[in-house]
Amino acid sequence: MTSSALFDVDLALRGVVLARGGAVSLLGSHRVLVAANSKVPGSNTAGRIGLVCGGGSGHEPSVVGFVGEGMLSAAVCGGVFASPSTAQVQAAIDHLVHVHRLDKVLLVVMNYTGDRLNFGLAAERAKARYNGAVDVALLVVDDDRALPQTARRTGRRGIAGTVLVLKVLGHVAHHHHKDSAPLALHDLVALGRTLVAQLGTAGLAYEDATSTSTAKATQATLGRGIHGEAGTTTLSPRPDAKQAAKVLLETILHGPDALAVPRGSSVALLVNNVGATADGEMAALLLAAVAHLHDVEGLTVQVVASGRLMTSLNMESVSLSLLVLDDTNGPLFAEALLAPVAQGLAWPGAVRLADLSSLVLTSTPTTAATATAATRVPISPGHLGLIACVRAAAHAIVQHEADLNDLDAKAGDGDCGTTLTEAANALLARFQPEPRNESFSSFGGFLAAIADALMNTPTFGGSSGAIYQIGLTAAAAAASASASSTVLVPTAAHVLVAIQAATTAIQHYGGAQPGDRTMLDALAPLLALSPASCADPAAFAIAAAEGADRTATMPARAGRASYLNADQIAGVPDAGARAVALWIAAVVKAL
User: Fold this and answer.
1) pLDDT tens for residues 137-180?
2) Which helix (H) or strand (E) is 294 found in, with range?
3) Domain residue spans in the chain?
4) What is each CA distance from 112 to 64, 175, 296, 319, 485, in whole angstroms?
5) Is 445 within 8 Å of 494 (Cβ atoms)?
6) 240 vs 9, 65, 222, 246, 442, CA distance in Å?
7) pLDDT at position 213, please?
8) Do 325 and 268 form a contact (C-beta atoms < 8 A)?
9) Which helix (H) or strand (E) segment is 443 a member of?
10) What pLDDT, in 10s, does the model give residues 251-277?
11) What is the DSSP string of 225-265?
12) Average pLDDT of 290-294?
């Protein structure tokens, strides 16, 4: 059984809306959950900042359970373990701007490539679309301290500590002003970056993320990811609560990527149930963690929260998060964590450690910007040539869907072919073989039309969706800004300008570089072709194919393959690079 078959995301979101009794609404088919709009229109929203978080589903109650007063303004949900699309994020921003009358929005994501790309692209598009009238910023949370920081460019993963970030920023965004003036977005971003820098998390898994797991419950794995990514160390036999607390806290405080916390410091502690760990075991872990921090590490635990907050489906796993409460920001962080939230939110509440001894245990319409209808132009031989190229590229991807999935299964999550086939089918539907007229009259306009078609394909999300859309958007802008902006049939020089812009944008937002074993390794060789070589279109196909083949011997420094051991992917070409080589070869053949 695949993770996506475990539950229907759309039905689940409708159930959440029903259970919250009108406190939240669902934005049509966008998989965006928004807080009820009880305080607008009017002056009550003046100066307030909208807080949006999102990512793949399967981590509930994160983040849908945190939408409401005191935490999130909106949650954007992808498929199970898959990033939401840029269009979904845009829908959330548009709703907060047009319905909630907000002009400042902070997007918070965990550090996964697809989320960074899709939320980053949505932020950039919003800035451009609202022409500076709306301020949008992106904050990336990377709190996982269990993996050593090697040569990978992806950095730390974002995991359960994100919940503490959302709680603090949600409180500040709703209730705090600076010097009696509305809080500026850059001030909230700066506070968020401080939070992330003073945060560390480590997790211990006893089971895999699905019922088909071969992991033994008598063992535990340190550092297993919330998408089932392999961990770093296997512990056998399964540690008890005291041993688990010791391993997790030593990883955070003294591991290869340690959080700097001087003895005598104060901290907040989050004890997170990643899915199916027994409540009794969670309570024992909380007690053991507090004791270890006090007795061994010499730290004062001021605030404690515990619950099932950031999960991985039905994984039997736990994590501990520490947030440093220093003299500068500690009082504000503690105040925010202890503050109540709206009824119905999944935040369990936090308590001051001194208080523990006294406890008795017993469908909303959207108003997105409306695009004006594009001017149609008569079809020319140039149009037909470009359409033939994009259709050839799409057919090549469809024909090799299974091959790409097989490659991706050896180094990723096995859906590269399926994801790209969604895009290919959308392009085949958009670009008919013999249209009467078209919306583009230049090469740049053609690239923009492809980007728009992919943007309007909700199922083309994840990292691939964002990467292709970012690359095409940048390529279209570069082609349209060049001296030959009106050219319809491009020369090799025009194509190289577009490829250069695309690779630069992909590197900027995705973080990967040529040589990191990604699709860039099939694109970058084209930029190294000599002018003489470019005269033969076949040179483009050969360069892309050779670049894709070389990924079989490259170390993985980006994407999900970067979390695997080198011997697991040795000799296996990158599926994304192979896909690029396939469609470039198809385009060349169609010329």
Assistant:
1) 999 999 999 987 765 677 889 999 999 999 999 999 988 655 55
2) helix 279-295
3) 3-141, 199-355, 377-590
4) 18, 30, 34, 18, 36
5) no
6) 35, 30, 14, 10, 66
7) 39
8) yes
9) helix 443-455
10) 999 999 999 999 999 999 999 999 888
11) -TT----SEEESSPP-HHHHHHHHHHHHHHSTT-----TT-
12) 94
Condensed to tens digits (0 to 9), the pLDDT of residues 511-546 reads 899 999 999 999 999 999 988 888 899 999 999 999
Answer whether residue 373 shows pLDDT above 50: no
β-bridge partners, 155: none
**What is the CATH number assigned to the segment(s) 3-141?**
3.40.50.10440
Contact 368, 90 (CB under 8 A): yes
Query: Does the pTM exceed 0.90?
Result: no
How open is the CA angle 313-315-319, to the nearest 5 degrees? 105
Fold of the domain built from segment(s) 199-355 = Hypothetical Protein Tm841; Chain: A;domain 3 (3.30.1180)
CA dihedral sign of residues 524, 529, 534, 538 = negative
d(CA 19, CA 569): 45
**How confident is the model at residue 152, as a pLDDT?**
66
197: alpha, beta or left, given left = phi > 0 and alpha = psi -120 to 50? alpha
Angle between helices 492-510 and 113-129 (to 10 degrees): 110
Residues 566/521, Cβ–Cβ less than 8 Å: no
- State both tokens at 106: 């902070």
Give the pLDDT of residue 177.
58
Q: Which CATH class is domain 377-590?
A: mainly alpha
> Residue 143's CB: how many other CB atoms inside 10 A?
30
Cα distance between residue 184 and residue 135, in whole Å:
10
CB 92 within 8 A of CB 27: yes
Q: β-strand 74-80 against 50-57: which pairing, if any?
A: parallel
d(CA 520, CA 347): 41
Instruction: Measure the N-to-C terminal CA separation of the chain; round to a whole number of Å.
Output: 43
Catalytic residues: 227
Give the residue carrying structure tokens 């959302």. Answer: 166
Note the pLDDT of residue 388.
94
